[in-house]
Write a structure and sequence with these properties.
With 190 residues, the protein is of the alpha+beta class. Helices cover 28% and strands 30% of the residues. The protein has helices at residues 3-45, 170-180; strands at residues 52-53, 71-74, 80-87, 90-92, 95-99, 104-110, 115-118, 125-128, 132-138, 144-149, 162-168. The relative contact order is 0.15.
């Protein structure tokens, strides 16, 4: 075989390989583009659930986030609801007492700026925005202590904004709750 024929054969093989790669890459780009378009349209038509708003002007007085309602409380179904108010530069309550092996619903809002809530050593990570209630559920499997820093820059005192989350035995928690009475709220000094 002459060198000219070999060269033409090599060029044909290279062109076929390049053509296949071009087709494969075009298909991947098309799939990615369709995925982005589909998810964009899907979320535009169906906003995320649990979007709940609240009037910031009534936080301290008439809302569920009044100071007397903050902290952990038992719900009728045996779960625990914890209400948290974030404000520059603290979380209220500063220490949250929760039972292990119990469904827990966090409800948090902000009085002033965007804050973040991250419970170290867990998968809890949420943004807290003024005018909205962030709601999420979890179960802590065993007693432990966690830090809860703010992870969204909220001003010059941001680095000092943190709280404690203390997980205790479920029976101990329920006993402490009974001593507080039917409308009792618990925190770490209860």
């Amino acid at each position: 075989m002459s060198d000219n024929i070999r060269e033409n054969l090599s060029v044909d093989i290279v062109h076929k390989i390049e053509q296949r790669w071009a087709i494969l890459m075009s298909a991947i780009m098309l799939i990615l583009t369709l995925t982005v378009v589909f998810t964009g349209l899907h979320w535009a038509m169906m906003p995320p659930s649990r979007v709940e708003t609240i009037r910031i002007s009534s936080l301290a007085t008439t809302s569920e986030f009044a100071e007397s309602n903050l902290g952990s409380a038992a719900s009728k179904d045996g779960a625990v609801i914890v209400r948290i108010l974030a404000q520059q530069y603290s979380f209220t309550p500063q220490c949250i007492l929760l039972p292990a092996n119990t469904p827990i619903t966090f409800r948090a809002t902000s009085a002033d700026a965007i804050h973040g809530m991250l419970v170290t050593g867990t998968n809890i990570n949420s943004m807290i925005e003024p005018g909205y209630i962030s709601t999420f559920k979890t179960v802590f499997p065993r007693p432990a202590e966690h830090l809860m820093p703010c992870h969204e820059y909220c001003g010059t005192g941001h680095q000092a904004m943190w709280a404690h989350v203390k997980i205790i035995d479920r029976d101990t928690f329920l006993e402490m709750l009974k001593r507080k009475g039917p409308n009792g709220r618990l925190d770490c000094v209860s």
